[in-house]
Structures are given as C-alpha cells and as structure tokens.
Amino acid sequence: MIDLHLHTTASDGRLTPAALVDRAVAAGLTTMAVTDHDTTASIDEVTQLADTHGIRVVPGIEITAVDEGRDVHMLAYFIEHHDAGLQAFLGAQRELRITRVREVAARLAAHGVAVDVEALLAKARAKPGTAIGRPWLARALVRAGHAVSVADAFDRWLGQGQPAFVPRIGPSPFDVLGTVHRVGGIVSFAHPYVTKKDALLAPLAAAGLDAIEVYHSDHPADVRERYHVMADTLGVAVSGGSDFHGTGETRATLGAVWLPPHEFAALEARRASISTTPSA
Ligand code: AMP
Ligand code: ZN
Ligand code: FE
Ligand code: FE
To answer: In the chain, N or C terminus with fewer CB closer than 10 Å?
Structure first.
C-alpha cells in the first residue's frame, strides 16, 4: 500500500517519526512519503526506521504557496532535501510562519483569549527545522478550554474569515514549482477540492506541474473521478495519500486512502524527466 501524504511532529502531525513508522508498519504500507509543512526535518529519521521494516520512503514535503491571499498547498517528491538553496527557502518559509502565528496570537489576545505563544515557539525552537502552524494554536485553545476540538478552534477563531485569521505572505505556486524542479523534485497540487483554486491547474500544468493529488481523505469518490479526468486532460500524473496528522486530529485515517501502484510508476517516470541544477 502506497501513502504519499503523511505528517509528523516536525510540523503539525501528532506522531513522532518513530511512532509514524510504527503506524505505517501496522497499516501495511510498502511505500510512504512524509510531507510535513515547509520542513524536511523528519525525512532522514523516517527513512532509517522504515528501512528496517522494508518500507520504501520517498523524500517529500508540503510547501505552502500563496495565491491572492489564499493558501495553496503544493506537494513535492523525490527532492534532494539536503540542498542548501532548498533549505534556505524553507528556513524563510518557517520564519514567515513564526511571524504569522505571533500575529494570530495577538488577535486572539485582543479578543480576550490568551494563548502563551512564546511557550509554543520555544517548543518549536527546541528541535531545529520544526515548522509551527495554526494547529499548534488550535491545540492550545483546546487545552485552555476556549474550544472543544481543533476543528472547533478553526471554525470559531483561526479559519479564513474568523476573528483571529491573519492572511499569509509567501511565494506564488509558480515560484514553488521552480524551486522544487531545481532540486530534482516533482510537484503535485495538493487536495484541490479543499484548496478550491481549480483555475490555477491549467496555467500550472502549462508551467510544468507534474501531478494533481487525486486520492485524498477529503476527496469523495465522485470528486476523485473528476480530478482524475482533469489530470488526464491536462497531461499530468496523479498522486495520493491520506494526509494523516494523528488519530482524532482530522478526518484522515492511515490505510483508508492509498495510491495505486501504476500511478506511482507514472510519478517516477515524471521524476526521471526533471533535470536538476542543485545550488549546493
Ligand atoms: P497553517 O499551516 O498554519 O496554515 O495551518 C493549516 C493546517 O491546519 C492545515 O494544513 C491542516 O493540517 C490544519 N487545518 C486547517 N483547517 C483545519 C480544520 N478546520 N480542522 C483541523 N485542522 C485544520
Ligand atoms: Zn497540516
Ligand atoms: Fe494540505
Ligand atoms: Fe497535509
């Protein structure tokens, strides 16, 4: 079973790399990719541990791009994740996350909802490469009794249009495409049904987009079918994974969504066609 969309504690997943690999073994994964938000910090540990169980690990990441003030998640695979240029880019992404999380916390405080954001930032700093995000604030809101669940915290405070929402600043989807191709990776447009930016798909495909994430926990069968047709029409490949963040965190469960092997083979073929110009 192939799952190319998984998160760990390096970003907003609940599981450490070791705990995630244990779950992957239990679920029967044969190939997996950790795709933490704007960090590659878990890749080496997951690769080492998974290897002892005969599970293949594809180096991956979920990069946050911005289009007209809205977040666009872009998955990258087969990246040369130790590349210095890529790491500088990701370091800048994480700095923007820190600034944004502080601004969100200030807005919460202005609404009389106190969250100790400096304690969260200290926790993130304790492990180099950790990418903080709104789920960290959501969990703090739940702990403090200001929300009943992470989803509730997003619905009432942190989501788009809610009182503590702060628009993101960041690179365009086209910039991210170029950044990933430079380090030999391929790019898949993550969960388009969640992102709701389908108008980007054709221009991105023309610019070299490699795939669309068709198989995803938030994509019902009819939606999957629709994006599969779109991928075929645009001449791009298809990717997929659970987007598992830990039990109870979101709707995603490990083992419920997987990528068919022939689709994975097509991704590998796309990868072979990328020519790299590493910066280090
Ligand atoms: P950020 O990276 O700070 O933009 O936070 C976005 C992340 O929060 C997403 O990648 C999801 O993992 C999570 N998220 C977004 N909306 C929700 C929601 N309604 N319920 C639970 N988690 C969410
Ligand atoms: Zn996430
Ligand atoms: Fe995402
Ligand atoms: Fe994700």
So the answer is: C
Average pLDDT per run of 10 along the chain, which is 280 residues long?
Answer: 98 97 97 98 98 98 96 97 98 97 97 94 96 97 95 96 95 98 97 98 98 98 98 98 89 92 98 68
Ligand at minimal distance from the CA of 104 is 1
Tell me the domains of the chain and their CATH numbers.
2-82+175-272 (3.20.20.140), 90-158 (1.10.150)
Encode pLDDT of 40-81 as tens digits: 999 999 999 999 999 999 999 999 999 999 999 999 999 999
Specify the ligand 1 atom closest to the Cα of 159. Answer: 16
SS3 state of residue 266: helix
Q: Which atom of ligand 1 is nearest to the CA of 73?
A: 10
Q: How far apart are the first and last CA of the chain?
A: 34
Structure token digits, residue 148: 């009943």
Within 8 A by CB and 6+ apart from 212, the residues are 188, 189, 192, 201, 227, 230, 231, 234, 236, 237, 238, 239
Can you give the pTM of this predicted structure?
0.96
